[in-house]
Every structure is written in structure tokens, then in C-alpha cells.
Structures
1.
Amino acid sequence: MMSERCGVRLRVNGQVREVFIEPRKLLCDVIRQDLGLTGTHVGCEHGVCGACTIVVDGEPVKSCLMLAVQAKGSEILTVEGLARDDGALHPLQQAFREHHALQCGYCTPGMLLSALTLLQENPHPSEEEIVLGMDGNVCRCTGYYNIVAAIQSAAEHGGI
Amino acid sequence: MQTAPSPAEARSAPHDPPHALPGRPEDTRFLTGRGQYLDDIVLPGMLHAAMLRSPHAHALVKRIDYARALEIPGVYGIITGADVAQAIEPEKGSSYPRGGSWYFIATDRARFAGEIVAVVAAENRYIAEDALDAIEVEYEPLPPVTDPERATDPDQPVLHPEAPGGNEVFHRVWDIGEVDAAFADADVVVRERFSVHRHSSTPIEGLGAIAEYDRASDRVTLWSNLANLSRFTAAARALRLTHGDVRMIVPDIGGHFGTKAWVHQRAVLLAVLSKKVGRPVKWAEDRLEHLRASHHGTSRITDIELAAKRDGTLLGFRMRTLDDQGAYVCLNEPFGPFTIMQNGLVGCYTVQHARVESRCVVTNKCPVASMRGYGRIQYFFALERGMDVLARELQMDPAALRRKNFIPAEAYPYRTPSGSLYDSGDSTALLQKAEELLDYEQLRQDQASLREEGRLVGVGFAAAVEGGGPNLPTLAAAFGVNERTGLAVEVASARLGPDGRIHVECPTLAQGQGHEATLARIAADQLGVDPADVRVTVRFDSATMPYTPVSGTYGSRFVTSGAPAAFGATRKLRSQLAQIAASALETAPEDLEFANGRISVRGVPDRGMSVRQLAARAYAAPDSFGQGSDLPLDATFRSNWPTADYPDEQGRYNGMCTYSVLIHAAVVEVNPRTGQVKILKYVGTEDCGRILNPAIVQGQTMGGIVNGIGWALTEDLVYDEEGQLLTGTFMDYLMPRFTDIPPLALGHVECPTPFSPLGAKGMGEGGVIAAPACIANAVEDAIAHLGGRIRDSHLTPETVLRAMRSQV
């Protein structure tokens, strides 16, 4: 049931934001509804599909499994923060585009952010490491092949 | 039925070279998080809905008390079956009065676990779900019907007592040719029973809808992620309104695969709720609701018999099918059996004699409707497994048996005995390509030596036909039209903007297929402009866009509908612009060419004007062309497929616009101790005619095949005897992940359809149509020498181990 709202301050895509929310509110809902960043998509609400993946303090997080109050004081990166300020696509976004690594686009934001943290940790992953590293994200359109190719290409160009 | 062009004409259809994909225009918004999916839409004053669902598979709803729920701050209103039954017309299936009708919510009885019982509107989803807990419902549980084979037994409860026919909602025999004579002629007859499991194509975005009822005008605006505008008609009809009183808006769609075909039903419930609370109401389905209650792909039990000569010539086949429809039949359901005839009945083969006897029953499970590969997965599983059983009986190589029976390339266009006009194809060339990609001969040698080492490696093939673009002639009757013509229509418009940009609008309701890219390219090719100067809109708004009663994308129809309509509209615009430019350039319109953003006299590039100059002058100085002010800068084109016809008395008709042949092959290894199946290599070849966009075709083929692999190996909607779904989360309903994809080789043979200037044939579902039969054939090939036979389509380690031990 409804309870007292509390203030939560976050840094989202480099900017300070403060929301007043119920403690039970999921981080994905706060990002989408309170902050209006609807690029983070919700696919299963039980932590399996990975569509809601964002980066919290440098770690990939399924934002449907985290309460917003748990993220108090965190640095958050969502898909909206990936492109450069001048609008130029991030190398991973560019690689996804060039390799046709997306179709309906619904899982794509989560894929991009999982891939980003994968490459930050391991800038030159083998195909097997990509496949294992991305296994928390589900895509129903592409069959994954082009996503693997896009991540390989982004890694080869070293642009992360 | 009309005269078909000769095979020579078929192979010389207009044909530009394929082009590479420069990235799709739609990619930018999807990659930057700026797509607009249903749940991203926020309206002023909008409330959020949550749905209370029956915990019982079968129960009378005796009493609902929601007074306590209304006391929760933030709850605005609640509707139950009683409200809905007063406000709307229930939906009926194609076999009505059999199967009864449905209000999309339980009125006096819930017929499957997960059926909606009440809908709450509240300030946010959290409060709406709190309210669900405060609603009291008194149920009187009834025994459920869960076994389709027992559904019509006298001891089983009847789901729709008010409807005739009991739990059998469909029974029909299609008798094509002289099947009994064919069997009498046969040297060999094989019989088998195959069971195909229930599944869901389950896209990552669930169903969603928003309804805003306007009391002042008695009109409704609906937003939903539907893919087929015949559901717009259905929604309006349910609300006792017509198209003009309902505004339908379709935003970006996060995958569809047929799975959202009944989202209009939820939109209708929201409209009733919106009227009650006086506010717009949004509902975004969650995953548990989706798996339990959106709709499923049907399970089917098929008894198949095939009759052949000793040399492998297939003479005829008989199929008896039993489809489990779940609790309700709506719209075109029961439809699974019809897809067999619609798709051409005979697959890739010259066989002329067949009998299909189909029964459909209702059970206390989630209703079934369209899924990627609708009906064809089930049909080809039985036919292509049957071909392998026949091959084994004849001691023939399964590829050779198929080759023996293929419709020869020179026989196209080919009228199948069920009336389908197979437009183009070359199964033999595709099989050869598949064998090359497999290195088939070497593979058979390797298989033999591996077997000596105790390794169970198998090779399987499947040959199938993917009809593209449904012909829906009987839908015309829903509009009070009695004309007996084909119905495969679409509309598109093209406009020259004041800045020289070309705007193309077409209600394809794209779900990831890249229509903005493909239509931009088609328009650019016709008008000689850069694709970047074409703006394409495929998101739909009935208030601003032209549409047809069957617009949208389903049944692999885009290249038979949206693409030819946009082609027609841009051709029409081209001739209009040529008329305008001709007077300015003092030449005849037919002497003009469109290239590099310019319209100029053919052979005299200096005598011309840019499309931008023409646009600027046409908008700012229209009279300067000497043709008055009403210059034709917009063109709308309505297409219908030329070979779409009407069923004859036997139900024979050309059910689809195009027919793409698929030859798939799989190499698998079975773990002899665990029964685990590993796909070592998968080969998919297809002829989808002229390839409009290679990257998009490749992407959809790969996605479809992986979809089919999941269906075969890990995905299953399992019910217990109480009618409870046991695989209702993504922890149990296992879609393929990155780690599940095998090495894959794709191949194409292009036989352009002669019936469209674009030459392209539908292809979005092929992967999933062929893969399940192909993988099952490979698994059986791996274990057949041990006596193992595969009869169930879901190849879990347990199924495979049991098959190995059954020693039939």
C-alpha cells in the first residue's frame, strides 16, 4: 500500500535529478515516468529479458529489479546519455546501425548498455566472451548474430 | 482464377540490382531511446489500468464486490463483466454459433486461468494493483477441460452451454483429387501420429492500449500496438461505432509476430472504463499476463498417412488434425486448418490427391490465434516429418525423396490442387544450395564414422512453402459487400513537399521490419532522388492517413501490400510531376527522366530542373506553369494483388499473394546419456523472389530461424490437469539467448514473382515455419538406428531420451 514519499537524488546522464517517490517504486519506473527517459524499456519485470538494463555506478543493472531508493546518490547512464552532446552516435550505436543489429528496437537500449559495460571491462573480447557477456539480454527479432557482429566491430575500432 | 503468365515471363520480371543497407532511417530513434512505443505515451489526466484475473481455469463468477477497492485513494473506477456486457457487442468466431461469443472479460463464467474479471483505473499502476487485492470475488470452481482428445467425451463439462456443438467448434473435410484411388495405387503407405506443442512468439514488448472516450462527441480515440487494421473494424463494431467515430493510433511496435492480434479487445475494455471514469486510461501488459492470457499458438495432434510408389513418387496423403483452441474463438478463429488450404496444401510437391479432416475443440486454456508461422508450423511439422518416415520406409535418402517430388521450376506459375497459384520457385536449386552449404556427401561419411565412435549425429531437411500476403475475400462480407472478388489491398500516398522532399505514408504498422528504409528506397528509385530526401511514415493515425480495412503487416504481406502500394503512389506522383515539369521545360512528359534529384530531358541533362526547384515554384508560384493553381503534388494509390481470387464451391482459392520456397537443413548431435540436443550447424535457403533489401531479408531469416530453434528445443506452454499454466514466466518459458545460437549458413535463389513490378515475395515467417520439422528430422536421424522415433515436437532431453528408449 501507499506510503510516505521520500526524496531521492541521482545523477542521470551527467545531470543531477531529484525525485519524490514512494519507496516501493522501481528504478525503471522512476526513470521512465518521473524522469521522462522512456528509452529504458520494460520487458518482463522479473529480471530475465534485460530490456531495462542501465548502468549504475559503472555496473550493468536490470532496473526492474532495483528500487529507486536503492540508487540514491548513484551515477546512472541510460541510452539517452550514450550519444555525444552534438548528437553524433556513440561507436556502439553506429556499429549496431551498420550491422543491422536491431529490428523493432525494443531490446536495443538494454543491449547497448550491456555491450558498453562488457567492452569497458574487456575492450577486446573474443566471440565467446561476447556471447557469454551478453547472455542476460534477450532479443526476439534478430537471432543475435548481427548484435555479436556489431559488438565485435565496435571493439575492433576501439571506440568505446 | 485468371490466366497466369508463362514461365518465361515469370523469370523476366523487371528487376533492378539489389542494394546494400546504409542503415535504416528508423534506427536513429531506436538507438537513441527516442522511439515512441505504446507505454511511452502520456496524456494529460491519464489513468493506469490493472486487470484482475481468474485464478481458476473454469469457474462460475458468483459475486464481485469492489467497494473496498474504491476506498483506496487514487482509485478512480472499476468495471466488471456486468458493465462490459451492457456496453459492447461480444465478438464471435468464424464458426459461430459454435463456440459462442466473448465479451473479452468473464461475465458469469471464467473459462481459463488468467481471464480478465475486473479492470481498475487508478492514478498509477502501483495503486491499481493495490486495488486488485481489495476486490472480492466469489467463484464456484467447475471441473476444467484440458485434454483436447477428451474434450468431446460425454463426461466433460461443456464450456459454452448456450452454443450448439458442445466443445467441438469446427469439423470439416477438404477432399482434393481422388485420394482413396491414390492410396489404392500405392506400393507403400506409412502412418504416423505427431503432436505439436503450444507456444508463443512472445515479443519483448507486451500488448498495450490507451482509450480516451469523449463524452461530448460520443467518440473514442484508441492507441494500441496492433498490426492489422481489420482489428480497428472489430474494435469499432464491438463499441457499436463505425470507423469515423473511432480514431485509431498505432505508434512504434516493439515486436509483434502475430502475438498482439487481439490487443483491440483490451482497447475496447479500456474504452468502457474510460467512459465510466471520464479520463483516458492506459494499460501496458506485464509479462505474466502476456504468457498466461494474451493468446497462444495452437497445439495440434495430426494423424498422417502418406501413399507412395516404390520409386518414391508421392501419390497422396491424408491428414486428420485436432487443434486445441483454448477457451474462446474470435474473429477468423478457428483458423489453423484454413491455413493449410490457404498456403497451397501440397508444400513443394507435385502430389495431387489429399484429404484433410480438421477438428477444433475448446478447452479451459488461453485462446489461440496468430503466431509467426500461423498454422504452417503445425502443418509442415506433420508433412515434413511424414516425408522422413516415408523415406525411411523406402530406404531412400530424405533429400532424394524430396527432390523426386518437387514441383519443377519450369512448371511455375503452378496451380496447386487446392487452388493456390504458386507464382515462382525452384526447389531443386534451393536443395542443391542447401546441400552445398552442408557439404552433404562429406557429412554423411562423417556421420557414419562418428557413429562408430558412439556419437549420435543426425542430418535433417525440411522443405516448405511460405505464403506471403493473405488473400481475405470473405472479409468483404463484414462490410456488407457481396462481390466475389479477392481482397489483398493496401494504400499509400506520396507527396512532394515545398522543400523538394518526398513524403510517403503507408499504414503498414511496422514492427521492426524496416519499412521506412525499404519504402524510402522504392520512392527514391522511382523519383530519382536520394533516399535521405524521402520521409516515410508507417506509424498510423486514422484521422490523418488513408487506410484500407485490411491494412497493416501480418502474414508476411509487406511486399505484396505496402511495397507495391508505395511503388504505385510514387510512380503516380512521378507522372504528375512530369506533367508539371514538361510545360516548364517545353517538352513532352514521356521525354523526361528523373535522376540525381533532377528532372531533365532524356539525353540533355542541362535542360532540366531540380526537384527542389520544381517544388519551390509549385508551392510559391503555382500558376507559373500555366496549368492553374491546383497542381497535382500528391498521389494516392490503392493496390490489390492481381491473382487474389474468390473461393470456389470446394473452398479452392489462391489464398496467398506470393509463395516462397524454403529448404532448411540441420545437423545435430544428441548426447546419448542426457538426451540433450546440440545443433552443430543450421542451413536456411529461401527463394523470396527479388530481394529488396538484403540486410533486412538476412536479419528476418536469422531471427525466424532462431525463433524456430527455441520453439523446437526449449519453448513450451505447459498446462497441468487443473488448467494452470506451468511455464508462465521467462524463468520457465525459455527463449533462445546469445549462448543458444548455432553456426548458421544462409542461401538464396531469386525467382521473382511475375505478379508484381517489384518481383519480391513475402518472407518474414519462413525461419520459424521450417525449423521445427527440420530439427526434429535431424534428431530422429541421429537416433533412428537405435530405434528412436520423434513424435513430439518439443525436443527436450526427456522427450529425446524417451524416444531413444521407446525402441519402436
Note: Chain B touches chain A through 67 residues (CB under 8 Å).
2.
Amino acid sequence: MPLWKLKLEPDRYEIRHGDSAVALQIVDGIAEAAGPGAGSVRHRGRGQALVVGTVSSGVTGARRPVTVPAPAPGDSLVLLGCRPGEQHVVARPSWLSPLVGFDLSWKKIDAWPEFEAVWLVMRGVRGRYEASLLRAAEPDVSDDAHGTQWARVIAVSKLRDWEGETARDLWNQYRVAAGVES
Amino acid sequence: MTNNRGGSAGDDLLRWVSEAGAGSWERLRDACAYVAQKHGNERRPWTLASDLSALGHLDIDWRTRSWSVSPPAINLVPGLGLCVVLTGSRPFYVDRRFEEATDDLDVFPFEVPQAPSPAAKYAKCASVEVAERVAAGMGALFVVDPATGLTDALRPVDEEPIDAAPQPLLEEARRFDAVTLRWDLDHGRRAGLYRIDLHGRPAHRRLDQYGCWWAIDLSAGQFLTLRDRDEPVVRWRPSKGDSPARFDVRRELSLPVLAERALTVSSGLVPHVDGAWRQYGNVRREIAERIAAALLQPLRTTWED
């Protein structure tokens, strides 16, 4: 007899048939995290790699993201490193809301640059891109950076008004390194 | 098995494997058949188990015909805006700890039903540190960028181990056609990938150009057969408007489990089938490139919807 059709709530029950009786208890669950033997089957991957679920061991560790303010819907922000080529554009995952069926809003989101970010560049209240300092590091420019995307972001941005002395000095160095100022 | 509050067949199966922990394929197949019958699901029982494996809840070893549920994990995935994805074991008490750990002003839990597969569970976190705290609070592993780890571990299909096999009975065997992507009865005993019936279960054998037979995994066999095909069988589309970047594979093809898992965990969802293609959302180009390389396929960029 399939008991699930009765939709019994967790409790103690007794089933009788003639003189026979059997006691049973329906519980919400037994395992605290997973039943015995969980994780015992592993997939052997390339080299020494072993995979259980979504966890891969024996592989190069993934880079860790940073938390940044979410740009306005439809807009994006840019993280800049200290070298030309080190720019990373971040936008909201606007595709998620239609998928889940309700509006998701963000104050902060994750960014995954492949470099150590120095500047966070996002649109200010007047619509212009404004840079704020994340980490003090001088520009590392050996060749002419003028005309690179990295330099273009610096050229169209200004320093945020409330940034301190260190940020102002560094921003001037980046403007020079980008070929915006001499 | 308790009624999982109106969940899908996949939710029920996930609850069962989470409580059972590990076991034989025969036991899992029976559980699949039971929940499929309960939910009036007409898919073959093993497809439910395959979905759980693709979604990173379950690991199946087809050689030893055994399986185990993977421990619960909170996955921080690039491109999901700090919406972490819960994978692995999901018994009642993990569900309850997930609710407790996300009962916080900095966290917003939600789920996306995708019957007959188990619902995708997310928690939108205020920061990376909050995501880590949610994982610690519920005793789950914290996995950063799982798709990169999975594709790091992914072996190219020509490096998959294969074993010599006796010549199978070929009366009912079908040969995989690299042009039509179909399985043909009229095989003419030519070299290629064959599907045979082994004790009531499909198995795959490769006949090489020297007349030797090899036991081979379905996905490795298919992509080895397709390595010289001109028409692409995988493609990548950049994000466009309200659509995320996407990896597509022809629906007739099976992917290696680690590739499939890297693709599903990129969004937390099973793929969407559209015409001839199976589509996986929120897949970055670097992940698509790694997977295409492991499949020995060129990666074409498309702008099609």
C-alpha cells in the first residue's frame, strides 16, 4: 500500500489488519547533512584532480571575487589595475529577474578581475565617470599607454570629490601614465 | 520518503539520495522509478538520476554501478550577482539550516522550480563575506567559481581511459552517424561508435580502424567520432540585452559529466532545449573555450537568439 498517497504528517502511526498491527513513525528526516557514504564516489579528472559534486581538488584554486557597489540598471562600472590592459567591466545580471519571475534588486554585486584592482570607476550623480581608490598602488607603465582602453577610461573619468591626498597624488600619476596629462 | 511539500520528482529523489547517502545503481534505479510513478513522470528513470548528477547533487560511477550523494555546497558563481547556488545533499535538516542561515537582512533566499528536476535554490547575499557566512552557518562547503575548478579537472575526450572489449553481438547494434547525429541500424560493420544492449542497458563500444573493440563512455565516443566534422556541434553566444552569455550543444549529444556540471552550475539550472540545441545560460567565454577544447571541437560564436 503506497503510504505517500495519504500525505501523512510526521508523527507516530499504527497500521492494523485483523489481529496484526505494525507501528511506524514518519519523520522529517534522519541525516543531519547527508546519509552514510556521502561523497564516497569521486570522479577522477586530469592529473591529480578529483571531483565530488561541484568541488574539485587537486586543481589550481579559483581567484576570489571582490564586492563592489552595484551599478545602476543598464549601466556598468569599471575596475582598473595598475597596468594598461587591466580593466574589468561589471554589470548587473539583469537576465536573472525574468528567469526567477520577480524583480531582484542589488546594492552590491561581485566582480572577478584577474588583477588587483586599484580604482573603482562608476557614474556619479552628474552622469560623469568618477574614480575612487581601492588600493594604493602606483601605475606600472613601461610602454606608451595612450590610446589603450585602460587610458581611455582614465581620460573620461574624474576623481571623486571626497577622495584624500593619497588618492589625488595617485590619480595624477595615472593621468600622466595614461598620456592624458603631461 | 515523505511528501516533499509539493516538490517535483527530482525534489523527492534528491531528498531520498540525501538520506540514503550512497548505494548501488539498482537501488537508485528503483527509487527513480518509484518517484517517477508517484509524479506521473514518463521519462526513463535514469534521466532523473542523470539530472541530479548534472546539477552536482549526485556522483555516479557507471563502472562499479554505485553512487553517492555529494556533501552540501554553497557555490559562488561569477555573473550571478552574489546569488549563491546550493548543490549537493539536501535532506530536511540541510533545508532547515539553509532557511535559518538565510534568515538575515543581508540575505534573500529564493528558489526556481524546474520540474521534473529538483528546484534550484539560491541565496542573494550582500557581500562575498556574507556568502561565506551562509555556508559556514549551515555547515556546507564554500566553493568559489566551481565552473573553473570543474573545467580545470576536465580531461580531453581523447585522454579518457578506454578498455579493450570483446566483439559485441551486432544484430541489434546501432552505429552513431557523425553527419546526422543519429544511431543507425544499417552500420555495415564500419569503424565508429556503436550502441549495444548489455543485459537490458545501453552500452557503448568503439570499433577502431584495425578491427579492435573498446568499451567507451558515450560522450567520449560521440565527440571522438565528431572531431573531423565541419558543421559545428557546440557554439557560444555572448550576453545580449536581457539574455546571459550562453553555451549551446546539439541536443543529440551527451557531454562528459564534469563539462555538464560546469555548465549547469554556471546558472544553477538545467539546460533549456530550443530546436536542435541544448542551451546553458550564464556561461563565460573562457569556460566555453575550455569545454570546447576538451571536446576537440572548434568554438563558433553566434549571435542567434
Note: Chain A touches chain B through 60 residues (CB under 8 Å).
